[in-house]
Design brief:
heterodimer; A: mainly alpha; 4% strand; B: 63 residues; 434 Repressor (Amino-terminal Domain); 59% helix; Cro/C1-type_HTH (chain B); DNA binding (chain B); DNA-binding (chain B)
Amino acid sequence: MSKASFTSRRAPVHHYVLAFILGAILTIAVSVLVGASNPGDFWLAAGIGALCAAYPAMSLGAKVFVSNHTVARDAHGEQSVELQWMRQAGAGAFLDILVAVLVAVLVLVIGRFTVDALPVLLGLIGLSAVDAGVRYLVIRYRDLK
Amino acid sequence: MKNNLAERRAGRNWTQADLAAALGVSRQTVISIEREKFDPSLPLAFLIARTFDCAIEDIFVAE
């Protein structure tokens, strides 16, 4: 499996500043978008949007500006069988989700049903995660048994 | 791809974990190569050959 390990090295200070600025810009952009989508309660929606976006936005900033200096890549990570299992599981799960969504759309269109988007989207996230995980375990079991 | 990695490893009294550590890959990777479920990348094949002091074609044979 591809691995990375943190080192004791530090990036130049201005890289941390740039990472924070990028993270802050992305967080503000997302919070404004979320707030604008809910004009009746702009600040509440914007605050929730900022809370949700802050961690991934700051992580992205660190990935872009800091991690090259502080994270050591595993030289042989690409050569491990786990990466192949992961790719197979991911590709299979993607096809499963695609088929599931197509079937669900057909059922909804033909049956003229209406459903809320939120539980469907949450279900899709859960299904894709479980699908990929189960596929990975099955592929691993078959290769190692 | 067929290979005689298991025989060569046993000839040195190495465990799969020993070989995995020498190659810098996981033990599962070594198991999968020995069972011919996984073809190693070219750099890994060179590394395996270098580890056993032989040529790649001495270990791996195309089916």
